[in-house]
Specification:
Distance between the termini: 104 Å
Number of strands: 0
Structural class: mainly alpha
Radius of gyration: 30 Å
Helix content: over 70%
Largest sheet: none
Order of helices and strands: H
Length: 69
């Protein structure tokens, strides 16, 4: 009986160890995805800032145009 209990404990331990390894792997993947998303976010922020600057420049130009006639 004691041997069976020890085998059951070992089996559970191995299962938990495998689950832990999978969680660590998944955590690393999530960290990489977050880093990639942060890079994409920064690229979009820069793109948005450039677009706003172009819009501001166009508005300023329109403000200096003389009306026809």
């Amino acid at each position: 009986m004691q041997r069976e209990d020890q085998n059951a404990i070992n089996q559970k331990f191995n299962q938990l160890q495998q689950i832990l390894q999978e969680l660590v792997k998944e955590r690393e993947q999530l960290i990489q995805q977050c880093e990639q998303l942060e890079q994409e976010r920064e690229q979009l922020r820069q793109h948005y800032a450039r677009a706003l600057n172009k819009v501001d420049a166009l508005i300023a130009r329109i403000g200096t145009l003389e009306p026809p006639g």
